[in-house]
Design goal:
This protein has 14 helices and 22 strands. By secondary structure, it is an alpha+beta fold. The protein folds into 2 domains: 135 residues, Nucleic acid-binding proteins (OB fold (Dihydrolipoamide Acetyltransferase, E2P)); 255 residues, 2-Layer Sandwich (BirA Bifunctional Protein, domain 2). Strands 8-12-13-22-21-20-17-16 form an 8-stranded mixed β-sheet, with helices on both faces. A 5-stranded mixed β-barrel has the order 1-2-3-5-4. The protein has a 3-stranded antiparallel β-sheet with strand order 9-11-10, with no helix packed on it. β20 and β21 form a beta hairpin. The radius of gyration is 29 Å and the shape is elongated. The protein starts with 7 loop residues before the first helix and ends in an 18-residue tail after the last helix. The structure holds one RNA strand.
Length: 496
RNA sequence: GACCGGGUAGCUCAGUCGGUAGAGCAACGGACUUUUAAUCCGUAGGCCCUGGGUUCGAGCCCCAGCCCGGUCACCA
């Protein structure tokens, strides 16, 4: 029992609950043997001339009482179906039960399918069973004959905080999460079919790495040590490669101690995969094949319209040179320009402490502010400056660059990949540079991971690897403007 | 973290110049044996986010805070 006072609506339902119990009705049943879902009940009727007996169950989402007859709709995970009761068919006792029902209650209905005179295929109920009473009113709203939803649950905060209510009320919310599940299932099947092995690596790590970000810190009592929630799976997956698991992937949560906005949730789902004897060019082709296949399988087409733009997933996708893009859109040549020039280009871009920002961040800033928004159609940006890529191999023939690419669609970064650095001595030197950056005040700089270097010293084969932000991928597929719309229970400040 | 917008009945919203708080849906009572935003008659329902202040009087004006959303910053 909460201290929260109940609304009069809830009081009314409590009274009905008591009345039901008084009559010997079990208000929270133990099960109901269904023969049909809402949709199969409708389908079986249309495909048969014979009488179709059904047992369906669902939540009451509409109720229209007309004296001695009553219409309503129940909704299950497949859809909705109308039901109809006549007092002289179900009997006085059952019919009086209706008085004690509310929108939101779960019902089991036994009856036969028929078509009403207005044409709707409907369950003619012979027996009705309350399966679970709803003590709070669901914000169901109403749908008119044109299918337009009126009222209902609109408040964004409630939709996220009470996702159960959002899901219960909005079929399209349920559809988004079904789509998410289908997408993840496809990614698994694709990688499995390519001979990849799915693995699980630690989420609680003594050192964090594999990305540049601030971690969540926690304390493990039994070991009397600080631990970090992982910011990436990368370094553990590459340990697997060292160990001879030539193709591995993991789909799991990463945690980054950062702000929340339309594209960021502090815990999010990442797919990372690594393939021995592949380089970033091979990975690019694999990503292209995988995501093209994903769109075709889920959307049934190679071109999808999202946020008013038709996106064409037909391969090959353009490979655009990072340095060229920055030169083209920011007018700066990263090969020759001094820090001062980069800084000057970024003036008036609302960057705090611009004067003390290190070169790596200046480069990042130029790309973000001048280039990202221009990358609408699926495209790969290739060959990043080496100084912003501490885990990537230098580019063959140009040590100022790394063999790295990112995939962009509609200005959003969806994948990050490279030919993995497997020279342990060079990796140590890169870590040292990161340590210097950290000492200069860069809280996101990479930590030095001696154990990872040890692993590399045992010899890691040439390897291509990639990380894909699953939430952002689903946002694109579901045309969701906010990452919160594709995460069932997004982060919110706790209620006080 | 900064700026902008929002917070009023279970839900969606209105609220004039500062003068006793409104609608639709949902709820409750009644009528109604093929309705579908059912209809008709009636009834009830409010910590106007919280705390201060101004005022004879505050949902409304002022200050502070809380929560949400948006933009920006931070952030692969």
């Amino acid at each position: 029992m909460t201290l929260e006072t109940r609304s009069f609506v809830e009081e009314a339902r409590r009274e009905k609950l008591a009345a039901l119990r008084e009559r010997g009705v079990v208000p929270f049943e133990y099960g109901f043997a269904r023969t049909h879902t809402a949709v199969t009940a409708l389908e079986d009727y249309t495909s048969s001339d014979q009488e179709v007996a059904v047992r369906v169950a669902g939540r009451v989402i509409a109720l229209r009482a007309h004296g001695k007859t009553t219409f309503g709709h129940v909704s299950d995970h497949t859809g909705r179906v109308q039901f109809f009761l006549r007092r002289d068919e179900v009997g006085e006792e059952q019919y009086r039960l209706l008085k004690l029902l509310d929108l939101g209650d779960h019902l089991g209905l036994e009856g036969v399918m028929f078509r009403t005179k207005t044409g709707e295929i409907t369950v003619r109920v012979k027996q009705l069973k309350l399966l679970a009473k709803a003590l709070r009113p669901l914000p169901l709203g109403k749908e008119d004959s044109a299918g337009v939803q009126h009222s209902g649950l609109v408040d964004a905060e409630t939709r996220y905080r009470e996702r159960y209510a959002d899901l219960a009320v909005h079929a399209d919310t349920r559809a988004t999460f079904r789509l998410r599940a289908q997408a993840i299932s496809y990614l698994r099947r694709f990688l499995d079919s390519k001979g990849y092995v799915e693995v699980e690596t630690p989420a609680l790590q003594p050192l964090y790495g594999g990305a540049l970000a601030r971690p969540f810190v926690t304390y493990y009592n039994a070991l009397e040590a600080e631990f970090y929630l992982r910011i990436a799976t990368e370094l553990y997956l590459k340990r697997c490669i060292v160990g001879g698991m030539d193709r591995v992937y993991e789909i799991g949560k990463d945690f980054r101690n950062e702000g929340i906005d339309r594209e960021h949730n502090p815990e999010f789902t990442m797919l990372e995969f690594y393939e021995a004897y592949a380089d970033y060019g091979d990975i690019m082709c694999l990503v292209e094949e995988m995501l093209h296949g994903l769109v075709v399988e889920l959307m049934g087409t190679e071109k999808i319209e999202r946020f008013g733009v038709t996106l064409d997933f037909r391969p090959p996708w353009p490979r655009l040179d990072y340095t060229d893009l920055v030169r083209e859109h920011a007018g700066v040549d990263l090969r020759t320009a001094e820090d001062a020039v980069l800084r000057a280009t970024l003036v008036n871009r609302d960057i705090p402490d611009l004067d003390s920002v290190p070169r790596t961040k200046l480069i990042d800033g130029l790309f973000k502010h001048f280039v990202e928004d221009t990358l609408v159609q699926p495209c790969f940006v290739v060959d990043y400056p080496i100084e912003v890529s501490p885990l990537a191999k230098p580019k063959r023939g140009d040590p100022a660059l790394a063999e790295r690419f990112e995939l962009f669609i509609q200005g959003s970064e969806l994948a990050n990949a490279f030919s993995e650095l497997n020279d342990p001595d060079e990796q140590r030197a890169r870590f040292d540079a990161q340590t210097a950056a950290r000492e200069a005040g860069d809280a996101e700089a990479h930590q030095i991971d001696e154990d990872y270097i040890k692993a590399l010293e045992y010899g890691m084969p040439p390897t291509g690897g990639c990380g894909i932000g699953v939430d952002r991928l689903v946002m694109l597929l579901a045309e969701s403007p906010s990452i919160r719309d594709v995460i069932l229970f997004p982060m919110l400040r706790p209620e006080t």
